[in-house]
Every structure is written in structure tokens, then in C-alpha cells.
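Catalogue entry: protein
Contents: sequence, C-alpha cells
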Amino acid sequence: MRSAAEGLPGPAHGTRAGGVPLPPGDGGRRLWSRDFALFFSARAVAKLGETMLPVALAAGLLEHGYGAGAVGLAMASSVACFAGLVIFGGVFADRLGTRGLMIGADLVRLVSQSLAAVFFFTGHVVLWEVCAIGAVNGAASAVFQPGVASTVPRLAADVQAANGAIRIAESTAQLAGPALAGLLVAFASPGGVFAAHAATYALSALCLLLLRMPPAATGTRERTTGFRADLVEGWQEFRARTWLWGVIAIWCVLMIGASGPTVPLVATEIVQEHGPRAYGLVNSALGAGTVIGGLAALRARPRRMLRSGALALYLFALFPAVVGAQFGVGAMAAGAAVAGAGQSFWAVMWATSVQTQVSPGVLNRIHAYDVAGSLAMMPVGQALAGPAAGAFGTEHVLLAGSVVTLAVATALLAVPAIRNLVRVDQSVSRYGPGPSAAPEYGRRPPSGPEHRPDGAAATAPGHAHHGATAPVTPVTPGTSGSESR
């Protein structure tokens, strides 16, 4: 993976993203530093636990007499709390720094998931308590997630290569996580999966504790205004970028009509019809596809990143289609692999656009608005999954989700500000020396002291993840899966 990253475009010689000097001999192109490796490990191990969780929830709640509606509510409790609080997490990250907040969030989730493990081990499973634990996890994730966006360009010389590498690691975890969870459920109990999930947060916190963050990137400044003013400033910066809020508005349709219902319905359908091990196998195939998509994104350097990403997103429609059509496990796994590749490629293109088009001083808040908007409708889709399946049938809801996904990809390509956004390499972005970022398509670049070409304050317009991720975890434009994400 190192060889794939070397020789790719990076910041100006002798600087890290953000204009931070690199150690002698680094040459401005080094990716695998000690600190990036620690952050990479933290993301990979946390993703491993997160991809195990849907299997544990589906199998554990079904085992205790609950149905698809309960699984949807349990997942929605976490996503709703996350989406409602992540905006505030972005302000905290810009004001207080990111590493301490991320460590604290991991420790909170370590405790909450350990408590869930006790409940499932002892057979004391009450739906409202499971939902309350999910809400706590969502709140902790809301504090954690905004810092991910600004940490990557501070640690890596090549943002796209770093995002591709992290995506591959997360995808590999997604490949192993569901299969491991299926084995733990089959040979132990759902409580064992929750215990393993708690352990991944402990390891993530340890990696972040050992991490040494470089100095703040060029363009950041001391927070001299109040919390509310910072919140408003973040919203204004978000609203000024048509490509950003345009994608989020379109993404809300995906959350309600496709990703939201797909998460609980795919889990319930496969577990009920084929068992938890089959569900683990299909989601491992999804993980294998996202590895392929991550490798493609590591190599590809399209000039219009979001146009390429939207084209790849068409492939994601295969997953709900093959499950809704009630194909065999092998066909579902193949469809999941193709869908994962498309979704992963989009996620890297999106995350890299955000991190290279937005200035460090507002990146955490922009990312928070991005993630909040991406996930705002996810709990609505998840909560409606059970009633919709009861009214129309699980298969019809999943097939409709496939059609919605195709419509969303088409809508992304139909918006000029999205499809025509030109990439900004780090060597010419506000993360390093060089000219300012390219102006947003169809919009004159702002002028004045708050929009200086040297990147000292707000950024030039541009387009910004999720990704995150997949039918097991939410597919969001603003995260690399985290997140679900």
C-alpha cells in the first residue's frame, strides 16, 4: 500500500498538509508516518467493531422476541442522536482540539457497549434500554466524528491517498467484522459481540492516546468568538457552497427511500431466511467490494472527482436489488461486492473534496454540517422500515430502495455545481502553499479579508464522504463509514 501512495501528487516539497513543515528527508510525499499509522489503526479497529454491531443487534433482538421494527428503532436511536448533536461536536472540535475529544468519546462508548454486553449475557434485554445505549453511543460519535476530517490532512502529505488507505482498512474490517460477529453469535451469544465491540473502542482510544498531533494547519485561528457565533459561522460557510448543500439535499432522499430502510431490512431478511452466518458472508462480500473501490480510488485521479464518484454510485443500487429479489446467498454476495466498490469510490472522492476544498479553520464545523445533513433523514428511514415492510412487503421496499439509489446518482450528475467541480490538489489547496482553491462552478469567488488567497481565513468555494458506509452501516457522503458515519 505504501508503494501505491508514493509518487502521487502531494503538497509542496517540504510541507505537510496545512503548511506544517515535514521532517528532513520526508520530501513532502510521505504517507506512512508513525502518527498516521496510529490513526489508521484506530480507524481500522473501531470499524471492525462497528461492522459487528448490526449482526449482534439483529440476532440478539430477534432471539428475545423482537422483530424488524425493534431492530430499526435500536439502530435509529443511535443515528438520530448522532445527527442531532454532531453540529455541536464540530464547534467543540474547532474550539477545543480534536484528539482529547476523540479519546473521551471512545472511552464513553467502551463503557456503554460493556453495559450492553452485560444485558445480553444475562438475558436482561429491554428495548428501551438498548435504544438508550444506542443514544449514548450516538452522542459520543457526534463528538468524535468531526475531528476525523481535520486529522487526516494534518497527518498525511497526500489527502486522497490517506483517505484511500483508511477506506481500504475500514473495508477490510467490514470484510472480517460481520463474519466474525456471525461466528460469535452462532458459537457464543450476541453478548460476546457486544463485549468484542467494547474492546475495539479501548484499542482505538489507546492508539489515539499515543498519537502526536502536528501543529495546527495554516488558516486556523484562536476561537475569540462565542459558541453560538462559531455555530452560525459554520452554517454560513456551509450554505455558501452550492455543491455541498446540494449533495446533502439530494442525499436526504437516499436516506429516507434507500439507505435508512435497507439497514434493518437487509439484516432482518437475511438472518431470518438464511441465518446469521449467511448475513455475515454477504456483508463480508460487501467489505471485499469496498476494498476494491478503495484501491481504485487510491490510484485514480479524476479531474472532476464528484462526477466520477456519482457514476460509481450507480453500482450501489445492486445491493438492495439482489436482496429484494430474493436471490440466493451467492448472488446476494456478488451484488454486495459490486455495490461496495461503487460506494467506496464515491466515499473517497467525497471525503477528499471536503478536506482539500475547505480551509482548516472551519473544516470541523463544515464536516459536522455535512454529516448532520447526510444523516438527518436516516433515522426516519430506519424507523419507517418496519411499518413499510408490513404494508408493502420487505422485498418491495428493498426494490424501491434500489430505484431511489439510481435516481439519487442521476440527480447528483444533473446539478452543474456538483458534476463540474474541479479537483484541488494539495499542492494548490489551502492546506499548503500555492494559489487558492478553484472557485465553485458558476459562482464568483468571494473577496475581502475573510477570503484571502493565502488561506488565512475562510476558504474558496468547493465541493465536499461517508460514505461511510453500506447497508450494515449508513452510507453518507460526509464520512468514510464512520459512522455511521
